[in-house]
Specification:
The protein is of the alpha/beta class.
């Protein structure tokens, strides 16, 4: 960040001409642009604003002949389904329609216009194509923003299944032509910009004092005022008198002309000056955007916010609000049901502490003036292509454009660095002889169970023991989570603790749902869950949960309260609560369909489906009824989106803890199958069962060999001492709920249905006694003379693709399978694909042959791999094992489940393997993409020696040099949930003798 003294140079001798492009995403950008434009015009310059916002947004603040407004919309921002929800696919499609399809004509028009006004500088907030148009016109450009659209859209691409991937690269390329970025507080990672200048908050000035505003509105100083500010009041939001505490008034922004409100609400006029209204209020209730964020901080007005769905700008603004004691999160359903009181009361108790500068508009205008006058601020002068960087997936991961070997600059940090790196963990080793009688951690006594000397369990217990103690000021980010936990556990009662690891997919992967043999290794990283049950009358409730219950007037009833540590790393709410009665429909549990819809109401809290969903599955599948309240703490070290089954670890650990707390005796295999129900039926992710089985049934340093028909553990295969396995994270986020995994699964089930149909037709023909000639399906009856009828009968009733041998597939069926098929064409011919957890989209084209071939051959590869593990320890053994991994990897690619990052990692392993230098012999022998593919991690096999570890470290560094992302390496193993069992702990009495 440059010293502010450098920012303002001497004023130019002649007026400068600025072309200021404003994004089409709402009014928030326009309102902050006004503040910069106002100062540029005050300096005597001419500003042409290219915008889609109404004129009054600008003219109400700036009345000058030097302000020119040009109504052109060159991007669309995020398309919102309502005030809180972004339609991700619609956003990408709208951007394509607005900025991609007419791109050439846009560039030609803008270059001509920029030359016609003789612009000295192009400023963008933050329209991508403006930077490219400026470059084509030979004019310098600068961006002023706190986020960039490549950052926002990258998550949408994940939801769209990569159909609009090129949009992100194009946006990043456009931004790369910008000379530098003027970065606003609360900024997101923006790697497309190679140079940056930080400025203070850009905030609109206040026109009238608090007293003047209240007098004009007829509100006394003794009245508490909340301003309701959601950027426009959508239809269907009916605000009720009883939603406000007694003595409160609510100022409503953006209401429609025909909306009527109770007497304790005041509908503000369309042209009401919002900064004055915010500064005159005691708190604000709304959604976080840069305008509301900056004004809340600047005027020290507590902000009660409701999360927006799928907008990655928000967590960075939210963290800054909370750091300066200016933010209170409201649960969405409490917004719509009127349980506002506890949040408003909490807001009044805050003491906002932001003391930073609020003159960012003036400072930014000074920098722009100096740049337009010829001053050079940039430290790097590189061309657009060479300066191109990467787009971010879900805000925290890098997704590469293949082949672009440009490192991210040092000032750029992944969100894991922004929010605090996850501490490294030592290797997990177990000691089953530890003494139970001496087991205690801090203030807790272990009444049952054995923690197996697992360092991560010891760390979790120590964290649990200190939750109700004072929080260090350097940990403000974690304070809300800790306070939430301390407020729900009764520390004098028993707490049940369980542990479940993630898994490394060594072989088998996406063939599990087709019945394959799989080989899976439980990893060192695991999820810990602490559960406590209490009678509703003794359960400590969060204030909003208590208010919701009191509003019903029925007395205490069972409640589930959940806290998830580390939630901010994935932009989800850290807490969740619900009445247990929400899971009941009269005397019976609600259906899985209703549960899925219930948890999907608020995407910021949808994560709770993995946890609370275990309760419903126990109710439906085992007939369990819960009469007590349940408090749950989830703390997972299994990173999300890396293809190592973070969700399975959460599900297995949670269900294990709930079962232990309620005296339920569920074996590991049955528990895994129940957890798969959670993911398939409530979360809605079409996963197989191998993840949950490994997490529940696995053992340290062994491969779980399981036939997924549906879940038969064959054996636990020891990993030979000369062999070592690693997982390397590509940094590209993987999700089995994403479109690619589901489409491949559908393609496999389509293929199975076609094979069964073909076999049935052949069988009918053969039984009819046809001979000598080709039948209607192109198969000669001679094919089935020897045992043909028996084979066809088995194949006509094929339950799992993996039961079809590869030679039969090649000899009889491969030529019957189309490469791909439109969903409707398949449905017209075959009616259904008979997969209970996926639905065919009639308009979509599905790849069929490759997804069908993959599990058939993968099952063979896994069997060969398992057999080879017992062979003598030679390089030939390791080479053969590695070759099987490579074959699996390329089969994934043929299915469409590859990714640039995982492909790069596999190639780096191959380079090390085949290195022929005299000083180095390859000790790595193979690698493959893991799990559901489309990103995530790769599994690497090598010799267990120091040289292998050094080569893995070198691969990490080379990957970072190429992509800017330093991979996380998974190494080591730990026991599954069944082996761990559960701990029953209780805090020692303070009066107890030592």
């Amino acid at each position: 960040m440059r010293d502010e003294k450098e920012i303002r140079g001497s004023s130019p001798t002649k007026p400068l001409v600025f072309a200021y492009y404003v994004t089409g995403h709402g009014f928030g950008h326009a309102t902050r642009v006004v503040e910069v434009v106002r100062h540029l015009i005050t300096f005597g310059h001419v500003v042409h604003v290219v915008t889609g916002a109404p004129d009054f947004v600008y003219t109400s603040e700036v009345q000058s002949p030097n302000l020119h407004l040009r109504k052109v919309l060159l991007d669309c921002g995020a398309v919102q389904a309502d005030a809180l929800t972004v339609d991700r696919l619609a956003s990408l499609e709208k951007y394509s329609e607005t900025a991609v399809v007419p791109r050439e004509s846009i560039l030609a028009t803008e270059v001509k216009w920029l030359n016609s006004i003789k612009a000295d500088l192009v400023v963008s907030d933050v329209v991508p194509v403006a930077c490219r148009a400026a470059a084509d016109a030979g004019i310098r450009s600068v961006c002023v923003t706190n986020f960039s659209w490549d950052f926002i859209y990258a998550e949408y691409v994940m939801a769209a299944g990569y159909h609009h991937r090129s949009i992100i690269w194009q946006i990043a390329d456009d931004y790369s032509h910008c000379e530098f970025l003027i970065r606003l507080p609360g900024y997101c990672p923006m790697p497309a910009f190679r140079d940056v200048i930080d400025v203070p908050l850009v905030v609109r000035r206040i026109h009238r004092s608090r007293a003047e505003v209240r007098k004009a509105l007829g509100i006394g100083e003794d009245v508490k005022v909340v301003i309701f500010n959601f950027g426009g009041q959508p239809a269907g939001w009916h605000l009720k008198e009883e939603w406000l505490p007694a003595g409160w008034m609510c100022l409503v922004c953006g209401a429609s002309d025909n909306q009527e409100f109770p007497s304790n609400y005041i509908k503000l006029s369309k042209d009401a000056y919002t900064p004055d209204m915010i500064a005159a209020s005691d708190c604000m209730l709304g959604k976080i955007g840069y305008g509301t964020f900056s004004e809340a901080l600047a005027y020290k007005v507590p902000f009660v916010f409701v999360r927006r769905d799928y907008f990655n700008e928000e967590p960075f603004l939210r963290n800054m609000l909370e750091y300066y004691q200016c933010g209170v999160e409201m649960i969405r359903r409490d917004l719509f049901t009127g349980h506002w009181k506890p949040y408003l009361e909490r807001a009044l108790s805050l003491k906002p502490s932001y003391e930073g500068g609020i003159n960012g508009g003036e400072v930014a205008a000074g920098i722009l003036q100096d740049t337009a006058a010829g001053k050079i601020y940039t430290s790097h002068k590189l061309s657009g292509v060479r300066r191109l960087s990467d787009a971010i997936v879900l805000g925290y991961q890098l997704q590469r454009a293949f082949g672009r070997d440009i490192s991210v600059p040092d000032w750029y940090a992944l969100a894991e660095n922004e929010l605090g790196l996850r501490p490294s963990q030592p290797s997990i080793e177990t000691n089953e002889k530890s003494s139970l009688s001496e087991s205690s951690i801090g203030s807790f006594e272990i009444l049952h169970g054995n923690r197996l000397n697992l360092p991560d369990t010891v760390s979790f217990l120590k964290t649990l023991a200190g939750l109700d103690q004072a929080v260090d000021s350097s940990e403000k980010r974690l304070q809300r989570e800790r306070v939430a936990v301390a407020g729900v556990f009764n520390w004098e009662e028993d707490i049940f603790v369980t542990r479940a690891p993630g898994r490394l997919d060594v072989m088998g992967g996406i063939a599990d749902y087709s019945g394959s043999l799989v080989l899976q290794m439980p990893i060192r990283e695991a999820c810990h869950v602490a559960v406590q049950r209490n009678h509703p009358s003794k359960h400590k409730l969060w204030k909003h949960a208590l208010a919701r219950q009191q509003a019903k007037g029925l007395g205490p009833s069972p409640v589930v309260q959940i806290v998830s540590f580390g939630s901010e790393l994935s932009n989800r709410a850290p807490t969740y609560d619900m009445e247990l009665s929400d899971m009941m429909d009269g005397e019976v549990p609600i259906t899985y369909e209703k549960a899925r819809a219930f948890f999907a109401q608020d995407p910021a809290q949808k994560w709770a489906a993995y946890i609370a969903g275990t309760i419903l599955v126990l109710m439906i599948e085992l007939g369990v009824r819960f009469s007590d309240s349940i408090s749950i703490l989830v703390s997972s070290a299994v990173p999300e989106g890396k293809g190592v089954s973070s969700s399975a670890a959460v599900e297995v650990a949670t269900m294990s803890a709930i079962a232990a707390a309620h005296g339920l005796n569920i074996g590991p295999r049955d528990l895994a199958l129940l957890c798969q129900k959670v993911e398939n039926c409530i979360v809605g992710a079409p996963c197989g069962v191998m993840d949950q089985m490994t997490s529940a049934c696995g053992e340290a340093n062994k491969l779980l060999a399981m036939v997924c028909q549906p879940a038969e553990v064959k054996e636990l295969v020891s990993i030979p001492s000369h062999i070592r396995l690693w997982g390397i994270d590509s940094g590209i986020r993987h999700s089995i709920g994403g479109a690619d995994y589901g489409s491949v699964r559908i393609g496999a089930f389509m293929g199975r249905k076609i094979i069964k149909s073909s076999a049935s037709a052949h069988l009918s023909f053969s039984k009819a006694g046809a001979s000598g000639n080709e039948n209607a399906n192109g198969v000669y009856s001679d094919d089935f003379e020897e045992h043909g009828i028996g084979l066809l009968e088995a194949e006509a009733s094929l339950d799992y693709l993996c039961n079809l041998p590869p030679h039969r597939f090649e000899a009889v069926y491969t030529k019957k399978l189309p490469e791909s098929m439109i969903g409707q064409d398949f449905l017209d011919q075959f009616i259904d694909h008979n997969d209970p957890v996926t639905v065919i989209d009639s308009k979509r084209k599905y790849v069929v042959k490759a997804p069908t071939r993959h599990p058939i051959y993968e099952n063979f590869r896994v069997k060969a791999f398992k057999t080879l593990l017992t062979a003598s320890s030679t390089d030939e053994q390791l080479t053969a094992l590695g070759e099987l991994l490579y074959q699996c990897h390329y089969s994934y690619n043929e299915c469409g489940l590859g990714s640039d990052g995982t492909e790069r990692l596999v190639k780096l392993v191959q380079e090390k393997q085949h290195c022929k230098s005299s000083s180095e012999n390859g000790t790595l022998f193979g690698a493959k993409i893991t799990g559901g593919g489309s990103g995530g991690s790769v599994c690497v096999i090598g010799r267990n020696c120091l040289q292998s570890s050094e080569q893995i470290l070198e691969i990490k560094q080379r990957y970072k040099e190429a992509t800017g992302y330093l991979p996380y390496v998974f190494e080591g193993s730990s026991p599954g949930a069944g082996k761990f069992g559960y701990l029953k702990i209780r805090r020692r009495s303070q009066n107890a003798h030592n």
